[in-house]
Automatic annotation (TrEMBL):
Its EC number is 2.7.11.1. This is non-specific serine/threonine protein kinase. The keyword Repeat does not apply. It comes from the Eukaryota. The chain crosses the membrane at residues 246-270. The keyword Ubl conjugation does not apply. It is a single-pass type I membrane protein. SUPFAM superfamilies: Protein kinase-like (PK-like). It catalyses: L-threonyl-[protein] + ATP = O-phospho-L-threonyl-[protein] + ADP + H(+); L-seryl-[protein] + ATP = O-phospho-L-seryl-[protein] + ADP + H(+). One of its GO terms (molecular function) is protein serine/threonine kinase activity. It holds the Pfam family Malectin. InterPro entries: Kinase-like_dom_sf, LRR_Rcpt-Like_S/T_Kinase, Malectin_dom, Prot_kinase_dom, Ser-Thr/Tyr_kinase_cat_dom.
């Protein structure tokens, strides 16, 4: 069953898991619904972009199949096709001719066309609600107006806009006075109420099927244009690429900043660890390895080396009374900056005190080598 042609809704599905654009073509066309972005659209059916004096017709040269759809990346418009031509093994669903066209000042607009064997639908999406002037442009390019049997073919189809049939048994060549390669314009005025406009070309099985060749039947259209019959209040522009670019730049800058921070932190951490291991390596040379404390532990133990906890002055610095986290009372000797005692001298002092055992000497419990 064709979801687009039947205008169904996929329930209990994550829209992010749907094929690209299909969520825009579900029931009630949810893309930009209730938040209109556009006030017009123009499509060069079956061909590349063409600019006329007052309109830019957007490219529509996507290859469609017997039951396929296409939605522009800006969600401005979409097209769907249903049906397969009988008697042809490789239907293209679009055509190109280089003939000269009459009845138009823009002949290049009619050199390409979109074809369908049964049902061809175009949708204007995200439109501001209001009345629109819709122009459909046709020219018969397959059934010639020669005085031979090849001119006996008849391409007949119906045209619906917003579900209302506006033309029944529409015959392009008859509208052109029986002439091929002559432009035919059909104009309509329709109201958009729910931010979308649907144009449906439908073959009801009428006309011929095989003259001048197999598969010469069904809808054919060269261009579509819809403009507002009111003063628009929307930007008529797709989401700003500048905003997207700004977001990308911000993301890159933040990412680089985080990486730089992590690199600096890693270097700092490695240096700290290396210094710690270098210091401990010197202590490992001592026969009796003392306990080691961090500076913050001793700072807490002595209430930030409070003057009230000062016991006196020792060699190379003052001595403070302190209490460790385990409740042990200790005397903490702080190396004075003015003592000019180096690390090697400090380690030597630690080794000496650790080696000497006497009842009148305070036993060394540990040390701190940070700083």
């Amino acid at each position: 069953r064709n979801i687009v042609a039947n205008n169904l809704t996929i329930v209990n599905s994550n829209s992010s898991g749907l094929p690209t654009g299909l969520n825009c073509l579900q029931k009630n066309f949810p893309c930009n619904r209730g938040a209109a972005r556009y006030s017009e659209f123009a499509i060069k059916c079956g061909g590349p972009q063409i600019r006329t004096t007052d309109v830019i017709y957007q490219t529509d040269n996507e290859t469609l199949g017997p039951a396929t759809y296409f939605v522009t990346d800006t969600n401005r418009w979409a097209v769907s096709n249903v049906g397969i031509f009988t008697g042809t093994s490789n239907p293209l669903f679009k055509s190109f001719v280089s003939n000269q066209f009459t009845g138009t000042v823009n002949p290049e607009l009619f050199q390409t066309a979109r074809l369908s064997a049964s049902s061809l639908r175009y949708y204007g999406l995200g439109l501001e609600n209001g009345f629109y002037n819709v122009t459909l442009q046709f020219a018969e390019t397959a059934i010639l107006d020669s005085a031979t049997w090849k001119s006996l073919g008849r391409r007949v189809f119906d045209i619906y806009i917003q579900g209302t049939r506006v033309l029944k048994d529409f015959d392009i060549q008859r509208e052109a006075g029986g002439v091929s390669y002559r432009a035919v314009q059909k104009k309509f005025r329709f109201q958009v109420k729910e931010n979308y406009l649907e144009i449906h070309l439908f073959w009801a099985g009428k006309g011929t099927c095989c003259i001048p060749g197999q598969g010469t039947y069904g809808p054919l259209i060269q261009a579509i244009n819809a403009i507002p019959d009111f003063i628009p209040t929307v930007s008529n522009k797709p989401p700003s690429s500048k905003k997207n670019r700004a977001g990308l730049i911000i993301g890159i800058v933040v990412g680089v900043g985080v990486v730089c921070f992590l690199v600096v932190f890693a270097i700092f951490y490695i240096k700290r660890r290396r210094k710690f291991y270098d210091d401990n390596e010197e202590l490992l040379g001592i026969d009796i390895m003392p306990n080691t404390f961090s500076y913050s532990e001793l700072k807490n133990a002595t209430s930030d080396f409070n003057r009230d906890n000062k016991l006196g002055e020792g060699g190379f610095g003052p001595v403070y009374k302190g209490k460790l986290n385990d409740g042990r009372d200790v005397a903490v000797k702080q190396l004075s900056i003015g003592s000019h005692q180096g690390k090697s001298q400090f380690v030597a002092e630690i080794a000496t005190i650790s080696a000497v055992q006497h009842r009148n000497l305070v036993k060394l419990y540990g040390c701190c080598i940070e700083g």
